[in-house]
Amino acid sequence: MRIIFSLVILYLLGACAPKATVTPTKPVQVDTIVADTTPVAKPVTPIEVQDQQSPSDDLNFTYLKAKSKVMWKTRSNTDNYIVDIRMKKDSIIWANISVSMISGAAVLFTKDRVQFYHKINNEYTNLTYDSLSTSLGFKVSYDLIQNMIVGNQPYKKNNTRRVVRENENFLIKQQEGHVEVNNWVGPNRKLKKLSVSDLPSSNKMTLDYEDFANLNSALFPFSSSITLDVKNKENQVNQTLITIKYSKVELLDMPLEFPFKVPAKLLKP
């Protein structure tokens, strides 16, 4: 069940118009370093700016189809998975998790519930987002997961929002109940870093987006990393690192299928 729960946070973070397939270009490697004796300029003092227009651009889409490699690393273990994703905006997120070319689990997110089918162990779980949030130690919702997959700001504009200019970046600070959210937006107007902190528990999630590539005139992050710092029952912090690398992303207008079949005997109360 650990991999299934990891997927929820994992794809708290990853996708959208006529069909388009894009492979990200590799960053240029620089082999020569030249010393620069120019005096270093003092960093610009953060300045709060007028929040008249959002400094970030959301990725709009209808359907998404993608394939990714996922690494899940804890202090004692490292696992690798292939994850296929299909999405219909504001409706369904489907994922199939494979290990060594064998389909091991399927996950279905809808607006009000999360369903897990662990094929290898023949286990089925049907949860509300409140139950899932309790298990993970973080407040989770469908909108949060969807926004983090496509690299949009997870929380929209509200009365507690503040925008601060930090050199070439914008820092958007938000308060959602007892959750503190910081969004760093780069000069490309895309979310480059996100931190979400649950103040009562001190649990924290940090997400970094990288390897942006054009998808039909929009930017999409083909790599991301998630760091989870969550306290256990002994009040000790367990850290988990999740890295995601997309090998293929398709943006579609034509409807997709979301196959999710569970044996009837597992559906009985």
Walkthrough of the structure:
By secondary structure, this protein is mostly beta strands. It has one domain: outer membrane lipoprotein receptor (LolB), chain A (Clam), CATH 2.50.20.10. The chain has four helices and 15 strands. The protein has a 15-stranded antiparallel sheet that branches. Mean pLDDT is 78; it is low at 1-7 and 9-45.
Task: Write a concise keyword list for the protein shown above.
globular, disordered N terminus, 4 helices, 269 residues, 15-stranded antiparallel sheet, outer membrane lipoprotein receptor (LolB), chain A, mainly beta, single chain
Biggest sheet details: 15 strands, antiparallel
Instruction: Give helix % range.
Output: 10-25%
> Count the helices. How many?
4
CATH class: Mainly Beta
What layout of secondary structure does this protein have?
Layout: H1 2-10, E1 21-22, E2 47-48, E3 63-73, E4 78-88, E5 92-99, E6 102-109, E7 113-118, E8 123-128, H2 129-136, H3 142-150, E9 162-166, E10 169-176, E11 179-185, E12 191-198, E13 203-215, E14 218-231, E15 237-252, H4 264-267
Q: Brief description of this entry?
A:
This protein is mainly β.
